[in-house]
Every structure is written in structure tokens, then in C-alpha cells.
Amino acid sequence: MSQILMPKATAVWLVENTALTFEQIAEFCGLHPLEVRGIADGDVARDIRGADPIMNGQLTHEELDKAQADASYRMKAVVSRHAELLKPTKKTPRYTPVSRRQDRPDAIMWFVKNHPEVTDAQISKLLGTTKSTIESVRGRTHWNSANIKPVDPVTLGLCGQIELDAVIRKAAEKAGKTDAGRTLLEDQADETPAAPEAIETEEIDERRGPEPDAASVFSDFTDEGGED
Predict the structure, then answer these.
(1) CB-based contacts of 12: which residues, under 8 Å, 6+ apart?
(2) Which CA distances in Å does 17 have to 11, 121, 210?
């Protein structure tokens, strides 16, 4: 069954202008047979004007003639090429040829060595591998660790250069934002005014002058008594 435009209006036209069974009309329009029977009885879609599916390009004369000649025949709607092009396509999972799958650990090691800012999730999505494989390569627990060497995934044919650049750029931007946040905190800490330094004792002594001794103090009193 194909989804058609204005199913009830189409059903109204088919009920009024053809000898098709309720089941045939229901199947073609995507309705329930009882709903089509209600249209024929005037209980359903009473105010809906019929739409000719042949004029609308959704049904051919040949299909209609076949269906009217055979009650068991189910009409097939004309599929619009433009409608097919406009259908949203779901992105299929990345497929890696068997001959290239053994190169994945080398590509993972390349990321570990050259771009540690790229997350395991990004590597997994780009290379079509699993997080457990990435962890085993990073932790040197992979069964073939002795032979793993860092190789550019583009060179290995596991991804395109544009895809690789996009992943690295995105990871770098995210890492840059995190670093910027830490730097801001550090800058704020650096801007905290430092405690004033203690004034050197020698400088204070210089401003105060030499400490008076007993002789100088009593000499002052003697001088004052002599003057009297």
C-alpha cells in the first residue's frame, strides 16, 4: 500500500465513479473498509469533494481497469519520482572492508599519539570501531600490541581527509573552551592583590635615627639645669 494524497477525497471519487469493492478502495486509500462503507452510505466524508486519482497522477487507467475486472486485484499507486527524492534517508553505519579492519588499531594509535583531545566516541564513530578496542589499544592490552604502530587513518583508507579534519577541529574547539575556562580562573587568582611586604627594619631605623643612650639623655638634663 502506498500513501496517497487526499485519501478520503480519493475514496469518495472511487466510490462514486467506479465498481471497485470497499476492500479495494480501502487498500488503495489506506482506509478501513468500514470507513469506505460509511462513505458509500453518506455517513462519512459527506462534505468532501471527490478527487480523481487519475487526474492527480496517482493511478493509471490500466490499474483501474484491472481492479474492476478482478475483485481480488489490489491497485498500485503511481510513485512520484520527486516524492522519492524528498524522502529523508537514514545514514547507514560506516562499513569497513574486511581487508582494512586489521588497520583500525594503527589508526587508533595515531589518534592516541597525535590527537589525544579527540574523544573515544569520536574515534569510534569515525573509524567504525568499538570503545573497548580503543581502550585496549590505549592501555596496551590489545592482542596485537607489539605490532601496532600509529598510521594516519586517511592513508589507511578508513576515512576521508575532510571527515578527519572536521573531527579534529571539533575536538580542538571543545578542548580550547575547557582550557580557556581554566585559564580564566588562574588569571583571576593571579589578580588577587598580594599582601604588603613588611618594611625592612633597617629602613625604619634610618628614618627614626640612632637610638638615644643614657649619656645623651642625662646630658640634656644637665644642660638645662646649667642654663637655669
Answers:
(1) 39, 45, 48, 49, 50, 51
(2) 10, 59, 126
Q: Which amino acid is at 18?
A: T
Grid coordinates 496517497 are at which residue? 4
Q: Name the pTM for this structure.
A: 0.40
CA distances to 16, 80, 175, 213 from 97, rounded to whole Å, are: 57, 35, 32, 99
Helix, strand, coil percentages (3-state) for the chain, rounded to 5, are: 55, 0, 45
Q: Quote the CA–CA distance of 59 and 53 in Å, as a whole number.
A: 5
- Model confidence pLDDT, tens digit, residues 121-154: 999 898 888 999 999 999 999 998 889 999 988 8
Question: What would the pLDDT profile of 77-117 be if each residue is shown by its tens digit?
Answer: 887 554 455 455 555 555 555 555 678 999 999 999 999 99
